[in-house]
């Protein structure tokens, strides 16, 4: 399984997000603790908004097939990126090739998408899934992963208008197709998606045994718990992290996203709701 993290808050150097935490996403690329794989070395990617690329502009992505822990270019680039919203992903391939177009996060217009998990029996159901992607969107598919296919299904089912409903329809469609092909548990996912203003995350699996997902406690509460930690003073009041596994061992710093739920984060606002797939008409 892959590992990922998302950040929303005041603009901050990407280097501080990627490399400084005790159990950073870079450390997780080599020493993951909660996933099915300790090593996530089949490439990496980061995507971000802002940093002078214009209000309303599409996100910028930087991807490589190199292991994240061994990419000096990433370390250099990260010192020059200051962003209010960052996605980072380290990959453990579930069978598709190790190539740049298969590295997360995926991007279409203003939207980004990254995923930990898999669509079971993907090679057997791939044709049916891809044929359901809207024809106007289809040329945007660059790679061969189940993750990108799920992204474009969500776009087809209205991601830009209503992300929770669109993802519920995409997942419901995959489960329906999978089960018609004899796949008992078609979907396993923790997903993050963003339009640059908000982040939506989803934790769901058909077998109700989904990989871990956590969100950070309110920064003001952390400051009260740990007044000696100066690093917390550099984070704005709205700072939030959503991560595959905690970036450190501070008690009270992390909350688990409940099984079978979706959550949203935007400046000054966040919430969690149950997630229920629906089969599109």
Short structural description:
The chain is an alpha+beta fold.
Please write out the topology.
Elements: E1 3-13, H1 14-18, H2 25-31, E2 44-49, E3 60-64, H3 72-78, E4 82-90, E5 106-108, E6 111-119, H4 122-131, H5 146-156, H6 163-180, E7 187-194, E8 198-205, E9 214-216, H7 219-225, E10 240-243, E11 254-256, E12 261-266, E13 269-274
Antiparallel strand pairs: 1-4, 1-10, 2-3, 2-4, 5-6, 6-7, 7-8, 8-12, 9-10, 9-11, 12-13
Helix pairs in contact: 4-5, 4-6, 5-6
The domain tally reads 1
Biggest sheet character: 7 strands, antiparallel
Rounded mean pLDDT score: 93
Find the CATH superfamily.
Aminohydrolase, N-terminal nucleophile (Ntn) domain
Low-confidence stretches: none
CATH top level class name: Alpha Beta
**Which strands sit side by side, in order, in the main sheet?**
3-2-4-1-10-9-11
Which structural class matches the secondary elements? alpha+beta
CATH architecture: 4-Layer Sandwich
The percent of residues in helical segments reads 10-25%
Q: Let me know the number of strands.
A: 13
Question: How would you sum up the global shape?
Answer: globular
CATH topology: Glutamine Phosphoribosylpyrophosphate, subunit 1, domain 1
Instruction: Give the H and E element order.
Output: EHHEEHEEEHHHEEEHEEEE
Total helices: the number is 7
Percent of residues in β-strands: 25-35%
- Give the termini distance in whole angstroms: 32 Å
Alpha carbon gyration radius: 18 Å
Q: How is the quaternary structure best described?
A: single chain
Organism: Geodermatophilus sabuli
InterPro entries: EgtC-like, Gamma-glu_amide_hydrolase, GATase_2_dom, Ntn_hydrolases_N
GO molecular function: transferase activity
Keywords: Glutamine amidotransferase, Transferase
């Amino acid at each position: 399984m892959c590992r990922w993290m998302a950040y929303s808050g005041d603009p901050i150097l990407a280097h501080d997000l990627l490399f400084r935490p005790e159990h950073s996403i870079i450390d997780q690329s080599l020493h993951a603790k909660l996933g099915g794989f300790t090593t996530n070395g089949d490439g990496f990617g980061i995507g971000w908004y802002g940093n002078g690329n214009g209000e309303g502009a599409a996100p910028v992505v930087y991807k490589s097939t190199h292991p994240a822990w061994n990419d000096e270019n990433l370390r250099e680039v990260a010192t020059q990126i200051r962003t209010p919203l960052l996605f980072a992903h380290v990959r453990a391939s579930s069978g598709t090739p190790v190539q740049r177009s298969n590295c997360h996060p995926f991007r279409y217009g203003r939207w980004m998408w990254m995923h930990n998990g898999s669509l079971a029996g993907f090679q057997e159901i791939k044709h049916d899934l891809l044929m359901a992607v809207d024809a106007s969107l289809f040329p945007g598919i660059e790679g061969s992963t189940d993750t990108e296919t799920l992204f474009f299904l969500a776009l087809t089912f209205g991601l830009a208008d209503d992300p929770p409903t669109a993802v519920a329809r995409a997942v419901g469609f995959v489960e329906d197709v999978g089960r018609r092909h004899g796949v008992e548990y078609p979907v396993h996912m923790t997903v993050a998606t963003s339009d640059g203003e908000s982040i939506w995350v989803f934790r769901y699996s058909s077998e109700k045994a989904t990989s871990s997902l956590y969100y950070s406690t309110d920064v003001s509460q952390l400051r009260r718990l740990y007044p000696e930690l100066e690093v917390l003073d550099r984070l704005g009041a709205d700072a939030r992290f959503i991560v595959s596994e905690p970036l450190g061992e501070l008690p009270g710093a992390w909350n688990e996203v409940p099984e079978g739920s979706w959550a949203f984060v935007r400046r000054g606002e966040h919430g969690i709701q149950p997630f229920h797939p629906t089969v599109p008409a």
